[in-house]
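yo

u said u wanted the structure for the complex thing, so here. seqs first:
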Amino acid sequence: GAVVSQHPSRVICKSGTSVKIECRSLDFQATTMFWYRQFPKQSLMLMATSNEGSKATYEQGVEKDKFLINHASLTLSTLTVTSAHPEDSSFYICSALEGTGGGSTLFFGEGSRLTVL
Amino acid sequence: AQKITQTQPGMFVQEKEAVTLDCTYDTSDQSYGLFWYKQPSSGEMIFLIYQGSYDEQNATEGRYSLNFQKARKSANLVISASQLGDSAMYFCAMRPLNTGGFKTIFGAGTRLFVKA
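structre next:
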């Protein structure tokens, strides 16, 4: 299957700093990528849809100024958690849509575990 | 609005036996896709199987099969000949195929424990 790489897999930072997480589609071009957040023992919550060359579409309740998303190329989307606080600690997973239309499949990165001290 | 329901927080199965993980869904879309993903303790999401709402036959992928009952709005995952490595969280997911920006929503998940 298609490969989506996410980096870093783990990051620990101090409160108030910003953290950037990268999501790359390694063997296909992805015009659309998605960012999810997963709390322990819970399901994946969609944060935003990242579209190459345009602004991200955020889900209701997600602060766009705190979670900056940039989709600069067809293979790279980044999520920057700005001025991180302990409540931002979570598992963040990106996914990329391979293909177009109804036959497209969603592939996921390995996830990034963020711990804010 | 779309909704995915997985009513089994945890399931146990004996190694080599088959197990069914339940999933029901609700959507107003006429065309949609149903997916199952496996999430081991490492956290990665592994795609298992896909069923389109327009598919008349149930999808199968190796030991995985999807029991799709459109009228009941259910899409249960059947794992045959369970293996110890099947122990993981399993998520049922759905996505509209023609509208909604292809956003995928997930159920709460079912944790599967395979016993030796």
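The longest strand of chain B covers residues 88-96. The mean pLDDT of chain B is 93.
cya
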